[in-house]
Design brief:
With 482 residues, the protein is mainly beta. It is built from four helices and 27 strands.
Length: 482
């Protein structure tokens, strides 16, 4: 007869034996709960990360944003219903007037879209559409200068090494990452025509592209796109999501221009809505940036890094010293500089971000005229890195940690131009995949002979789904020779 206190032990024996497992049992007078407690391993506590303080000056990034307007459609990020994502059309005659922001574009402007979907009804394909409308009395020509769009399924979020040479855009982690390098390289995909001619009072589709989820391991897909345009006259723009229509044979087809126009005229904002952002005047409490849906002022940041605003040189730091400049600094993440680089919103929906936090798809063009005034050869290290986010530097310098946090905060490519030791102009495209707080090897080392100059150019389009702020660090490496 099995003693009552050993019932659970014998049951465990039977389960393990029946499943082909092995079990060594020694009768014990202890209670079953004691036996189980002894057999459960105690989890090893994770070591406390080592905080590393990089004690060096952090200065505001020279330059400023231009005033080119950007149509920024990023809210809601995850879409489950058909509807309007962002409309700058006039609200006149619309069924839901509050869904239209009444902002016409003319001349240079950009369109950025970034949306995702999961588990749509019956696995129907969602289409992401962008429509342009000419409200005037003359035809308008819209030149598509560059344009690129990718699906998440064709550019999945994957782990990559910290640095990869990427001249042909074969390394990427996410559709936004892949799209913005195409634009940095001046490309226009075949999905986008060279120009659109829009007759007065008519519309044309700029984008009408699918996001299918069938035959995927998980029914999740998305699409990012960046398009640079120039219009000869006023145009309105709108982005929308619509399920594919079906032919009589049951096969899916893309929505027509008329179907998109009907959605624009009668539809409401797509759902679910994102978190309500924190009002700018709020002091204390949780800071919620929110997702962006509106028109921002600024598409490009042009900056020249010199010793002073009127200087022509960037004198390299003393041996062993460095200096850092924030990239995409924002409220709550100014790294002691009091500089908020975030693009301001010209129009927006009331439940979306007050500013374009993160500066997604803003191009940074940074020139660095290095000068070595010493009589010795010096090695200068350039690094784009992601310190721990702080508004003020609590320990007098940038904070990093070992081990770094596990989530990638920057995944995108940069273009680097400089002159090598032989006097040859070098252009590199390098993909970065960096975790927050990660200690990194330099992006590039440049040898500076005594009294020499070297103009370095660093360009990037801030990749969607990266998390600011980053810094550009310039450091003169301490070596035995210097």
């Amino acid at each position: 007869m099995i003693p009552p206190q050993n019932y659970l032990s014998y049951i465990l024996i039977l389960i393990l034996v029946s499943s082909g497992g092995y079990f060594l049992f020694k009768p014990s007078s202890k209670s079953d709960s004691s036996i189980l407690a002894q057999s459960t391993p105690t989890p090893t506590p994770k070591p406390t990360p080592e905080i590393i303080v990089q004690s060096q000056p952090v200065k505001a990034l020279p330059g400023k944003l231009d005033t080119v307007p950007m149509f920024n459609s990023n809210s809601p990020e995850w879409v489950k219903t058909e509807g309007i994502l962002l409309s700058t059309f006039s609200p006149t005659g619309k069924t839901v007037p509050e869904a239209h922001l009444n902002f016409p574009f003319q001349g240079r402007f950009d369109i950025f879209v970034h949306h995702q979907t999961h588990t749509p009804k019956d696995s129907q394909t969602f289409y992401l559409g962008v429509i342009l409308y000419n409200p005037g009395k003359k035809s308008v020509t819209v030149d598509i200068l560059q344009g690129a769009s990718y699906q998440t399924k064709d550019a999945p979020y994957i782990k990559l090494p910290p640095y990869l040479d990427n001249p042909d855009n074969t390394s990427y982690s996410g559709p936004g990452d892949r799209a913005v390098l195409d634009i940095l390289q001046g490309k226009r995909q075949s999905d986008f025509p060279e120009k659109l001619v829009i007759p007065p009072g008519q519309s044309r589709m700029l984008m009408n592209l699918p996001m299918p989820v069938v035959n995927l391991e998980k029914p999740i897909n998305g699409r990012s796109g960046l398009i640079r345009l120039k219009s000869s006259g006023e145009v309105y723009a709108a982005s929308m999501m619509m399920f594919a229509k079906k032919n009589t044979d049951g096969k899916e087809r893309a929505p027509t221009l008329e179907e998109w126009q009907n959605l624009l005229n009668t539809g409401k904002l797509a759902t679910p809505r994102d978190k309500i952002p924190t009002p700018p005047e709020q002091i204390g409490g949780q800071l919620i940036y929110g997702r962006v849906a509106g028109v921002q002022s600024g598409s490009k940041w042009l900056g020249k890094l010199t010793d002073n605003p009127n200087g022509k040189d960037f004198t390299i730091p003393e041996s062993g010293q460095g200096i850092s400049y924030p990239i995409a600094s924002l409220k709550g993440g100014r790294l002691g500089t009091e500089q908020n680089q975030t693009a301001q919103m010209l129009v927006r929906y009331p439940d979306t971000a007050y500013q374009a936090h993160g500066n997604y798809c803003v191009e940074y063009n940074l020139s660095l005229p290095l000068y070595n005034p010493t009589e010795q050869s010096q090695t200068v290290a350039l690094t784009i890195e992601t310190p721990l986010k702080e508004d003020k530097l609590s320990r007098g310098g940038l904070l990093f940690q070992n081990p770094s946090r596990d989530f990638p905060f920057f995944r995108g490519s940069v273009r680097l131009k400089y002159t090598d030791d032989s006097g040859k102009l070098i252009t590199k495209y390098i993909h970065l995949w960096h975790k927050t707080g990660q200690i990194l090897e330099p992006l590039q080392k440049i040898v500076m002979p005594p009294g020499s100059r070297n103009l370095v150019q660093i360009d990037l389009i801030y990749p969607p789904d990266s998390t600011p702020p980053q810094v550009l660090t310039v450091k003169t490496i301490l070596t035995a020779d210097n």
